[in-house]
Amino acid sequence: MDLLSPIRNWFSGMANQETMLSVLKLLGIIGWILFAIAAAVWFLHTLRRKRQSSPPALRKASIPEVEKNSLKKGDPTQEPDLARQRLAQFLGGRDADLEKKVAALTAADAEARAILEKERGLVRAKLADLDDALGEQKANLLTVARALDGFREDFYPEQLEKARSELAQGETGTAEFLLRQVLAEGTPRAAEASYYLGILAENQIDYLWALQYFYYAAQLQPDNPTYLSAAGEIAYTLGHYREAENLIKSVLKIRSQLLGSEHPEVAQILNNLGVICHTQGKSEMAEALYQWALEIDQNALGPDHPKVAIYLENFAALLQEQGRAAEAGLMEARVRAIREKREEPGAEKTEAAAAAPADAGMPADADEVIELPEAVKEARSRRQKK
């Protein structure tokens, strides 16, 4: 009989227990490590969705300051003279930059030269009326600042607050960064982000980028008349008249279906299309469209409405170009009478508000040119028979 056998067995059991405990401890450590890795992955995923709280400014913007209290109640307003001075500095710098770009072009860059010259003309027009330009800048920045509320699920509140605060100071870097992130990820709000990026680009007199952003928004949502109109306005501004003409057809079709053929907004679109045709020298088409817009608004708003005066003014300009001075004079007299009665300031010629790819042939009949819905054609026929 081995007297030491119980002792050896006891020690052997202890060793097995210690081994088991060691294995359990090792498994526990591995479990905690896996849990920590999973938690880190979840945190990084969440952080990526919310993005970093201090994004860099991707565009150096020196847009003039706008009134802070236009974005937040209680904030002090900027001095108007200071805001005008900053705007003048920005526009002057932009004009000098465009001048350098034009000088660097060769004779083969005729199209690029024409676009840059148009931008220079627009810059100088803003310099000539700083108060109006400042109001436009302020309205654009305020529009974007308010729109950022719609992206609350995409960013931290402090990110959006920073972007709004910068916009109140005329800086667009953070707002652009956030909107570009939405655009890059292709979320359901990508079209909206592209549209507001277009507004910011337009605000900085960068019309080529603005046109690209507006076009992309319209491509993502081809039935959105706001995006189509924005693209068309810039296309018209840059002299892409055929593109503007086609996009406004799309806007007209959508709006007439939504609002009805007798709605004043349909008249506005018809007038805008008339302006595009007028600019291209399509006089007969422009005359038909101006007359059509007038009929709608005179019936819907009354003969002395300010919009009627705008359409009459456009129509009179066309008649003067055709040598029909007597008819134009009667319309001009009506314009003066309406504005005197309403005490309205002089109105600028309403320009186009829509655009798209050019088509080949342009039929002579105005209805066919703008590809109107049947309901609009029938309404016009009824008015002509009266």
Shape: elongated
Radius of gyration: 32 Å
Label the structural class: mainly alpha
Number of domains: 2
Q: Treating each run of at least 4 consecutive H or I residues as one helix, how many helices?
A: 16
Written as H for each helix and E for each strand, in order along the chain, the element string is: HHHHHHHHHHHHHHHH
Could you tell me the strand content as a percent range? under 5%
Mean pLDDT: 76
Helix content: over 70%
Largest sheet: none
Beta strands, count:
0
In quaternary terms, these chains amount to single chain
Low-confidence stretches: 47-78, 344-377, 382-386
C-alpha end-to-end distance = 131 Å
Sum up the structure in keywords:
386 residues; mainly alpha; Serine Threonine Protein Phosphatase 5, Tetratricopeptide repeat; 2 domains; 16 helices; 72% helix; disordered C terminus
Overview of this structure, please?
The protein contains 16 helices and no strands. The protein has 2 domains: 165 residues, no CATH class; 151 residues, Serine Threonine Protein Phosphatase 5, Tetratricopeptide repeat (Alpha Horseshoe), CATH 1.25.40. It is mainly α.
Give the helices and strands, then pairings.
Blueprint: H1 5-50, H2 80-104, H3 110-128, H4 130-147, H5 157-168, H6 173-185, H7 190-203, H8 207-220, H9 225-237, H10 241-259, H11 264-279, H12 283-300, H13 306-321, H14 325-342, H15 366-369, H16 374-385
Helix pairs in contact: 2-3, 2-4, 4-5, 4-7, 5-6, 6-7, 7-8, 8-9, 9-10, 10-11, 11-12, 11-13, 12-13, 13-14
